[in-house]
Protein 1
Amino acid sequence: MDDNVGTGGHVPVMLERVLELLAPALAGPAPVVVDANLGLGGHSEALLAAHPALHLIGIDRDPFAIEFSTRRLSPYADRTTLVHASSGDLAEVLDQAGRPVIDGALFDLGVSSPQLDEAERGFAYSYDAPLDMRMDTSQELTAERVVNTYSAGELARILRDYGEERFAQRVAGLIIRERAKEAITSTKRLADIVRDAIPAATRRTGGNPAKRTFQALRIEVNAELSALEAALPAALDALTLGGRVVVLSYHSLEDRLTKQALTARTKDTGPPGLPVPLPAHQPRFRLLTRGAELPSDEELARNPRAASARLRAAERIRVDD
Ligand SMILES: C[S@@+](CC[C@H](N)C(=O)[O-])C[C@H]1O[C@@H](n2cnc3c(N)ncnc32)[C@H](O)[C@@H]1O
C-alpha cells in the first residue's frame, strides 16, 4: 500500500513548529523521544527522518493506529518501539522499554482522522453508525453503554463538564425519556435527540448542536482527561536536563490541564520574601511558548482540522538531586 495514499492526505498538525521546538533536545548522540499519541505516525515519521540517531517510543490506545504506524514506520523499525497502551500508563511503558529517561515528549491529543472518518467507529454525528466511540476497541465501555445506563445526573455532569453544553440537563432529560421507549443505539438517533432538546433559537447559531454532546461522550468513553492527567506529569518527570515536551490540544479542557501542569513546574515554589531563593524551590521547567500558539492561517487553509489546535511547550532546566 502506498502510505501517502493510506494517510488520506492527513497532515500532521503544526509539524514544522513541533520539529523546531523538539530539535534542540534531540541533538545528542542517542536521543529518545516519546510520541504519546502515535496515530498515523505523521509526527513520528518526520522526527525519525530529521534525527538519524533518534529512538522513538510510540504509544496509542487504538490498535489500528499501532498496526498502521508499524507499517508506515517500517523503514525505521530498528529505531522504534511501538506500544498498544494508554498514555496514562506512560511511566510503565517507559520502564518496560528500558528507557525511563527521555529527551523529548510529544502529545498530539484527541482523535485521529481515521477515527473520525470511518463511520462505523461511531465518533461522528455526520454519519449514521452504532454508538461506539472507543479508541481502544478492546475495552468494554462504549458510548451506547454510557447513553443507556448512566443516570440523568451523571449524563448532565458529563455533558456540562466535558462538552461545556449549556443545556446539559435538558439533553440528559430527553435522553432518559427516549431511552425508556427504546435503547439509543445509533449516532443519528442521538444527534436527533440532542437537536430536539436544544431550544430552537440556539439551534440556529453555532454549528451542529450534537457537537458538544459527542465530544463529551468521547471524553467519557476514553477517559481522556484522566489519561492526560497521568501522562503529562509522567512525561515531565522522565525528561532529562534540557529535555522538551510539546503538547497539542484541541479543546479548552485539555489545554487547561496542560497549562496547569506546565505552569505548576515553571514557578518558584518557595515562600515569598526569602532573601536567597532555595534550590529546592526553584522551577524545574521553563515555558518555551508564550500562552498557547495557534496554527498559521496558511496551515488552516490547507488543513481545516487544525482549527482548534493549541500548542504549548516547556523545557527541563533543573533536575532533582
Ligand atoms: C490526533 S491523533 C495523532 C496523530 C499523529 N500525531 C499523526 O501525526 O498521525 C491522536 C491519537 O491519540 C490516540 N489517543 C488518544 N488518547 C490516547 C491515550 N490516552 N493513550 C494513547 N493514545 C491515545 C488516538 O487513538 C489517536 O490515534
Protein 2
Amino acid sequence: MSGRKPYAITLDVGSSLANHTGSWRDERAVYVDRMPPCNDACPAGENIQAWLYEAEEGGEGYERAWRRLVEDNPFPAIMGRVCYHPCEDACNRGQLDEAVGIHSVERFLGDEAIRQGWQLDAGAEPSGKRVLVVGAGPSGLSAAYHLTRLGHAVTIHEAGPMVGGMMRFGIPRYRLPRDVMEAEVERILALGVELELNRKVTNIAESMRAGGFDAAFLAVGAHIGRRAYVPAGEAERIVDAVSLLEGLEQGEKPLLGRRVAIYGGGNTAMDAARTARRLGARDAVVVYRRTRERMPAHEFEVEEAEEEGVMMRWLQTVKSFEDGRLVLERMELDEDGFPQPTGETEELEADSLVLALGQEADLSLIEDVPGIEVEHGVVQVGSNMMTGHEGVFAGGDMVPAERTVTVGVGHGKKAARHIDAWLRGGAYEHPPRPELATFETLNTWYYSDAPRAEQSQLEAARRTSGFEEVVAGLDEDNALFEARRCLSCGNCFSCDNCYGVCPDNAVIKLGAPGERYEIDLDYCKGCGICVEECPCGAIEMVPEEA
Ligand SMILES: Cc1cc2nc3c(=O)[nH]c(=O)nc-3n(C[C@H](O)[C@H](O)[C@H](O)COP(=O)(O)OP(=O)(O)OC[C@H]3O[C@@H](n4cnc5c(N)ncnc54)[C@H](O)[C@@H]3O)c2cc1C
Ligand code: SF4
Ligand code: SF4
Ligand code: SF4
C-alpha cells in the first residue's frame, strides 16, 4: 500500500513469466494526465489535485502544497473562508459519498503559511515595463501579484484609505478576519508592488500618460448601492447595505434601531441582516419578492442567518415607509416564475430599512477614453481581458461575469498573462486542455469509505454578541484526513496497481522524481487490465500504430 494513500486499496506485484509480445497486439496502454473536474471548475484556475497530492504527505508536504497553490492564487487563507467553492460541486467524490472539503484544506494551508511566515517566490528578471493597476481589491491584487512575478514593475492606485476592496468593505469580519486578509496582502506587497492609497483615478488615459505606464489593469469593482424608489417620510432611516458595511469598517456606529428590515435576497442582504443582529437589532427581517428557492443568496448563508435569528419574508415587496411602519405588498409568481403584485398589503414595524438590491460600478475613469465599450453598466473586454482601448485591460466586478472574489482573482491572473504577452509583443496561448476525468473514468471500488471532516461553528448565542469568526478551521489531523480523501482523478498517484496487476510484467517503475511508470512495449499484449484496475483513470488504451 502506498504511504500517501491510506484510502486506496492496492494490489501485489504480478509474478507471471512474461513473453515477448510479437506483432499481434492491436491496442496498447499509455499513461495520461486528465483534467480533474475540481480544477476545471475553480475560477482561479488552481491545480487542486496537484496541491492536495502534496498535502497528503503531511509535514513538509504542506509547504510544497502551499507553493503549488499560490502559483495560481495568492490568497488560500481568504479563499478557504469566502470562496463559494464551485470546485466541490464538481468534485467526483461527491458521487461516491461527499465531495472533498477542498476549501477547508485550502484554508488550513493558508493559515499554516501565515503561522510559519512562508514568503512568496520572487519574480522573473525585470522586463523594464511598468503597469498601472487601478483598485486594490482581489482582482487588482491578483493581477499585481502575477505581473510582478512575470517581471513587470507594478504600481496600484487605490481610491480608498485601505487595501482589500470588498474583502474589507463588504465581507464582514465574522466571515473573514482582517488580520488573515492583511497577512496575505502584505506578502504580495513584499514582492515590491508599489501601493498608493487615497489615490483615485479619474481618467485612466491621463494617469497612464502622467505616470509613464506601458499598460493598465482596471479593477474598480462595483460599489454604488442600487436604490429603489420607496415613498418615505422624512424621518425614516433608509441606508444601502454596502454603505452600511463600509461605514462600520471605517469605525462608524450605524444607528439602525431595534427593528431592522433588509430589502433584497442576495448574499449582501444576508450579511447586512447578520450584521444588524450583531449591532443590537432584536428583529432583523429580510423582505424578498420571490421565493426561497429563487433567492440568489447561497443556501448555507440563509441557514446561518436563520440560526442567528434573522427572519425571512418571501414573496413581498416594500411599498412605502412611514411613521415607523413599512407597507409590504404580497407577490405571486406567474407561470414564468416572475413575481407579480397582488394588491394585498400588510404592515411591518421597523426603525430602519436597509436596501440590498445590488451594486453598480463607477466607471467615470473611462468616460473620456476612446474605444472602451460599456454595456448594461459593465465594461466589455475581449477573451484576452483587453478593453477596446489598446493596452487597457479590465477584470473583476466591473466586467460581465459572476461577482465573486474567486472570479476576480482568476481575472487578475488571466489578464496578467495577456498583459505580459502584449508587452512583449506577442499573444498568450493557453496550453491545450486535457480530457476531463469524469466519474466514469474512475475505478471507485479501490477507494475506501471516508466521511468528510466537518468544520465546527461558533454557537449561535455567541455569534450575535460580536464579530468573532463563525466557522473554525480544521486541525492538522482533520486537514490531512480530508486531503487524503481526494481520489486524484485522472492523475497517477503511484499506487502500483498497474505494476502489480500486469500479467506480462510490462510495467516499469521509473523511480526518478516526476517520472512514474512506463509501459515496456516489447511485453505489453494490449490486454487492458492495467486500465481496468487503475483507480483514477490515468491509463488509456490507444490503437496500435500501423
Ligand atoms: C457584502 C458583500 C459580501 C460578499 N461576500 C462574498 C463572499 O463571501 N465570497 C465571494 O466570493 N464574494 C463575495 N462578495 C463579492 C466580492 O467581494 C466581489 O466580487 C469582489 O471583491 C470583487 O473584486 P474586485 O477586485 O473586482 O473589486 P473590489 O473588491 O470592489 O475592489 C475594487 C477596489 O477599487 C477601488 N476603486 C474604485 N474606483 C477607483 C478609482 N477610480 N481609482 C482607484 N481605485 C478605485 C475601490 O476602492 C476598491 O478598493 C461580496 C460582496 C459584498 C458586497
Ligand atoms: S478558490 Fe474556490 S473554487 Fe478554487 S479551489 Fe479554492 S475553494 Fe475551490
Ligand atoms: S476527488 Fe480530488 S481530484 Fe477528484 S474532483 Fe475531487 S478533489 Fe478533484
Ligand atoms: S497509473 Fe493508475 S494504477 Fe498505475 S500506479 Fe498510477 S494510479 Fe496506480
